[in-house]
Amino acid sequence: MLAARTPVSLHRRIAAAGQQRRCIVGSERKRGRTERRRFTQSLEIFSKHSPPIPPRAPPAAAAAAAGSEAKPPWQPPVLENAAFEEYYKVQQIVCKEEWNTFMGVLRKPLPATFRINTCCQFYKEICSKLENGFKRSLESEVSNVNGEDAISPLPWYPGNLAWQLNFSRKELRKNQALESFHEFLKHESEVGNITRQEAVSMVPPLFLNVQPDHHILDMCAAPGSKTFQLLEMIHQSKESGLLPGALVIANDLNVQRCDLLIHNTKRMYTSNLIVTNHEAQSFPECSVAKDCSEMYKDTCKSQRLEFDRILCDVPCSGDGTIRKGHDMWRKWNSGMGNQLHLLQVNIAMRGIELLKVGGRMVYSTCSMNPVENEAVIAELLRRSGNSVELLDVSSELPELVRRPGLSTWKVQDRVSWFQTHDDVPDDRKDVVLPSMFPSSNSTEESHPMCGDVEVNIDNRGSFSRNINIEERSNVNHDTDGASISSTNKIDSTSKFPLHRCIRIVPHDQNSGAFFIAVLHKLSPLNGSLIEGTKIQHKLAVALLRKEPGPGTIPYETILTRQQLKVSEVVDDAEMLGTRQDLSTDNRTSKHKNSTEVEMDFNDVENAQAESGDTMKMQKQSRWKGVDPVLFFKDDAVIKSITSFFGIKESFPLEGHLVTRSADNARRIYYISKSVKQILELNAEVGEQLKIASLGVKMFERHRSKDGCSCAYRLSYEGLSLLLPYISRRILYASPLDFLRLLQYRSINFAQFVDTRFGEEAASLMPGCCIVVLLEGNKPAVYISKDPSTVAIVCWRGKGTMNVMVSPPDRKDLLEKMANHLGLEDCTEEDWNRRNLVTGLID
Ligand SMILES: C[S@@+](CC[C@H](N)C(=O)[O-])C[C@H]1O[C@@H](n2cnc3c(N)ncnc32)[C@H](O)[C@@H]1O
Could you name the active-site residues (predicted)? Predict the structure, then answer.
């Protein structure tokens, strides 16, 4: 993929990383203090409601020092967060009857899960290796007390493409019987054939119902596991031999995480991906003001970025990931969700604005906190009027065990619980927002969480049962009274079917926890409604500014602070984003006062309003992180490449090649038609999109003394895309010669086993060529040239054929080839020993 790698941009990145690290270190210290204080406070306050916390098991070293020689028996982790327990019970996230089961599952390690990449060349072989090989061998080798399968496909994931192991990642590393399986997993993930991803995190993209021509926006995409899934979907659904018309824009605020995203999606070799670096809540729409007379309506419409599908996997407090790291359990508190609520609403609302009419948006979090989930969805529905509906997707993925969204909840602020915004003390009203509360009119019906048993809470937050639905709905209050929110007033009579939201809890199918809501845009957003909301929002801000109560903080300041504060509290792989993105916020807020580094457009707006220094801010808003993407327009070079490789006209190169360097491009990248359109639009709107990476590397400049007429060679990354359209410089090798090429990388023409191949290679003009594997006894003319064809890029030198494939790819091909030839148990050394190939090395 085309990512900026010039020394200048690298320096900038390194400087930014250093700065961010300093921010993280600073905030880590502060976080430690704040957490200790919060934790002590919550312990004191909640200890009267909660069972006593058992003492920690002594560490192994201490036990040994105390004289006990034997290793102490394994103890389940002590989960010491009374606030967490209280919160889950009060909000009825799990009911009383299942509490022990729930806690039991949380204490168990999360089973390892992975997906098979359907775009990899050998995915069918991998499926069969799992189904017929490992599944059986592991059953006999790994004892399972519960009689469960050692590995099994996740029943709800289409096509048996996602698998669950009945052991944790730790067991996988430690258990000798699992060694070969572990090696297999490590290797396949290294080359991108499988993705190790938590089961629940695989769910949101499945509800997007992606089609081959869709334009998709992944708003908060890093580290990219769901982006990878989306890319697989668009490539899988295309007709064979055709390039997909679809497009994925994967965005993330955090520069470092964007790099991770680029790295993680690189193995897709896709020309249909753009990685951008924006605040999702202000993602540019790239609209061009044009004459929109009736006649040009369609053209006008296309001059604005709109998406058929949007994934809005927002930063969240992350309690759903507790099984991955118990640290999160200790650190979690409800304030984390409160602080993120508004950011989540704003990101999701921007998503709705960018969604096409008729399009679908999936909102998801790895938290169970209603303030980050149902409250956000209710607020979206309020703000969108009748333009958006919450879809009932109960018939989709029927095997996925799920629970309905909550209809009622309370909001916790520090140690107090509130039922309505009216109850919130004045000096906290601007932190505990009206949109965090359910409205009594906001739900069609109540849906108990625990089957037939209706449970609810009394006002002291204790855990009681059998309060009926009517009583429960009395607990809710309309938020109309919350005078600073116009949004509640706009729609106070609406009914939101929040039970259509999906909650996945750990003890239903031995997983992590996740929240998902699927939204459908029915009509364009009502401009006056949005404007109304904005005006009311401004009024509220003005009101707070005018008459600040004692200790009241202006609304805007809170928004900034909310984003900064969260950096103090979260730490997990999925959650890494939250911590880092907030440290990015730290970074950007710092940069508000400096002139040196990149700025987000939002920051610019705020800063402009405050300082009025428009010119300065405009200068700062120019994103200087990476070099601009340029169309590669050197016709002479394009013609020489086209004629050298005999590239058919049906594969358009002109207008589809881009580079980052103005002169003498070293690498040329290929972009799909859909990406090309976006680039053109972006050029028209003054480079509003901050593009971190795009396209697939197709050609690389190659200087050689061999007298090659074409200055560029093909890149292995772009080969599968281009191969069906190439008519020259292709050689067909027998399996044995193909294997040997992979193994030795450079072979003399005279030393090929198949003398015909050696002669053909010798008679080829020097330069880049493609070697295709001859399968079985098929003559070359019958070998199809499609993405499933096994082929490599080589360089025909003076006397040798040289392989131009990276070491991991060669290793992968070698293994798959060995499999193909029934030599899977052989290592490279074995082949040497067995004299399958002998004395032929240069
Ligand atoms: C839950 S993670 C996303 C996980 C990702 N969807 C995946 O499946 O790999 C949340 C991401 O949001 C990013 N983020 C946080 N605030 C953001 C913002 N305002 N705009 C865009 N991205 C943001 C974080 O950097 C983080 O990578």
Answer: 366 (nucleophile)
